[in-house]
Design goal:
single chain, alpha+beta, three-stranded antiparallel sheet
Length: 82
């Protein structure tokens, strides 16, 4: 895994970029530099495929609800209608 460099090291304020993952949450990574102690939080990239899959499931559920609704409606016929 390629860790991002220490921002202080890229700006010349930290002599050496020695970054490690301090914490990992469901939506973020926390990186810390061992040299200067800087803490950086980066969000995890959203899984676009998962979002599209969930949206597709939602569309399919709405479609099925509509079909069931119209299937349950009674059909009326008028005897001797004009």
């Amino acid at each position: 895994m390629n860790l991002p460099p220490c921002p202080n090291a890229t700006e010349g304020r930290c002599p050496r970029s020695d970054v490690y993952v301090a914490k990992e949450g469901d939506e973020f990574f926390t990186f810390r530099c061992r040299t200067c102690g800087t803490i950086n939080v980066y969000p995890k990239e959203k899984d676009e495929k998962r979002g599209r899959y969930e949206a597709g499931l939602k569309r399919e559920a709405i479609k099925n609800e509509k079909e069931e609704f119209f299937a349950r409606k009674r059909a009326y016929s008028v005897l001797g209608g004009k």
